């Protein structure tokens, strides 16, 4: 029953992932349309600023999500430490925790810098775009970020349930 339940949950997660990927493709199309509009109306240096912001948006959000996920796994491992855990493993986990914590703080600084750049780009675009186009741009940035987060979350859940299923199947003779 448990195996069946895990397979069913995985099937649902795979379907959800396909929906998110479909939404991501739609968002990318909107991004291409916006890019063409911005290229047409902005000065080359302003267009370059826009493109750098959009490119960095995905990189920084992905970096933050990756670091947060890795940090959570290390924290879970640290919580499982008991008297049987050897000192070397404890030290290794603590060092990884410190390193990942510092890296995540650095990534948060990058995100704050990116947010400032986003406000500058938004100000530039406000000079050239109609209210509707500006609203589309803001929705694009918000949806792009949300989809990245949702996609990462689904990937983590799928990985977790696949591991659970694999472990369960191995434990049954």
From TrEMBL:
GO biological process: actin filament organization
The keyword DNA-binding is annotated on this UniProt entry: no
Gene3D superfamilies: 6.10.250.3120
Chief location: cytoplasm
PROSITE patterns per the UniProt record, alphabetical: ASD2
GO molecular-function terms, A-Z: actin filament binding
Subcellular location: Cytoplasm, Cytoskeleton
GO annotations of cellular component type: adherens junction; apical junction complex; apical plasma membrane; cortical actin cytoskeleton
Domain of life: Eukaryota
Pfam family, one: ASD2
Domain ASD2: residue ranges: 1-173
Any coiled-coil regions, as ranges: 90-117, 144-171
Record bears the keyword Cytoplasm: yes
Alphabetized UniProt keyword annotations: Coiled coil, Cytoplasm, Cytoskeleton
Family under the similarity heading: Belongs to the shroom family.
The protein's name: SHRM1 protein
Record lineage: Eukaryota, Metazoa, Chordata, Craniata, Vertebrata
The encoding gene: Shroom1_0
């Amino acid at each position: 029953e448990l195996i069946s339940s895990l397979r069913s949950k995985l099937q649902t997660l795979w379907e959800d992932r396909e929906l998110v990927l479909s939404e991501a493709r739609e968002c990318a199309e909107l991004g291409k349309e916006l890019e063409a509009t911005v290229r047409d109306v902005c000065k080359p240096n302003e267009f370059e600023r826009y493109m750098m912001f959009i490119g960095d948006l995905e990189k920084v959000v992905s970096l933050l999500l990756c670091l947060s996920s890795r940090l959570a796994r290390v924290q879970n491992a640290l919580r499982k430490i008991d008297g049987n855990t050897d000192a070397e493993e404890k030290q290794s986990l603590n060092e990884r925790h410190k390193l990942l914590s510092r890296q995540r703080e650095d990534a948060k600084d990058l995100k704050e810098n990116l947010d400032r750049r986003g406000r500058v780009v938004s100000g530039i675009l406000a000079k050239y775009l109609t209210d509707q186009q500006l609203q589309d741009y803001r929705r694009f940035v918000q949806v792009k970020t949300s989809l990245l987060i949702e996609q990462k979350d689904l990937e983590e859940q799928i990985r977790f349930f696949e591991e659970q299923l694999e472990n369960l199947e191995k434990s049954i003779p």
